[in-house]
């Protein structure tokens, strides 16, 4: 539709608005209380047949002429047909009905019946204009196709693409089911600060802001981890938080600068317990929301039934490349392997960093079914406990689906001396220009010095999980208002 045509349609609708006002028809009514939703009537027709109902919704289609007409009304639950006759509503009201545009929101009172073709319909006895739409819906009933426009104007996307509303209903059910599962296990849901004085809990670049009254820099949180572990120190043995996380990083089909995660911590547990919690939690949620542990994603059927396969990172790299890092005993030999595999690594890269790089480049994308990868190098796991008989590795795992990480967990580091040393290494990297490295958090070290019990910790990316459960190809399809460049910006 050209801008000229759009402006003409808007002009016509504004003229109708004024006509309604001239006829004492209020175009923006007050409260209206429907008695039923469209889906209730259609799903239980026998109970509603020939009974009066009140429904409200948006006019999505109109047909008919003369003294009677049909329209499709859409509410939050779906659509239902309405039938309006001049004999039922009167000549004056029928003239108002005829002037209704697609997109107008109306309230309807009438009785339920079936047409000759068997379509469940509400025969209108009375109706009221609740909100006049001044802009035409995109492409009428055929949906909004421009992907970029769908994200920018999500309200239009939700109006004209019913499957999008369904995706976000599923998202809500997933989050609700996660809460129910953890609450049944006596976990305590908590809230921790979004504005931090220091960044930590993940390797990520933060968003920075300034507090005028305190005259100090603050950072949007990149993780909830360090505050939740303080609560474990304080005596809460089982805690979790579902909340927004902010990372000043690129945008892709799997990344958005603000996203939703859940972090879970349990005292006296380790990463093996967290693995069981992860697979049982996800399995329970999928089964509850979909009625089956299997979901279809693109050309794959994903099965979330426990137990999920478990491989160490060393085993996974060996399986895929043939190189056994268990027998590679120096940084130099690791660099040679990377060169043979055609991977470029930094001159000062260590054995662990190279192992992780090879895994990410050659293995990660091939993990289609839910899989756990265990025992990550210490260099990329500054908050995880070292493996007792192999201090190059940590008690850490990540859960993968469709080649993407959906879960990250540790046997948490509770040794304050070791933690401080690792923070110092991270701080030196930050001083050298690594904006994703941890800051030194002296207060967290002090908290550990009071004693944190052995603890298992787990983080799950809600958006990515919902992506795979709803057959969505982009994280932006499961975030109501994703971050986008301003219009007109290259």
Primary descriptors:
alpha+beta; single chain; OB fold (Dihydrolipoamide Acetyltransferase, E2P); 5-stranded mixed beta barrel; 490 residues; 20 strands
The CATH architecture assignment of the largest domain turns out to be: 2-Layer Sandwich
Number of strands: 20
Largest sheet, order of strands side by side? 6-10-11-20-19-18-15-14
CATH class of the largest domain: Alpha Beta
Portion in beta strands: 25-35%
Could you give a short account of the major beta sheet?
8 strands, mixed
Helix content: 25-40%
Average pLDDT taken over every residue? 94
Instruction: Find the structural class using helix and strand composition.
Output: alpha+beta
Rounded to an integer in angstroms, the radius of gyration calculated over CA atoms is 29 Å
In the predicted model, the low-confidence regions spanning at least 5 consecutive residues are none
Using the coordinates shown, work out and report the CATH topology of the largest domain: BirA Bifunctional Protein, domain 2
- Principal-axis shape: elongated
Number of contiguous helices? 16
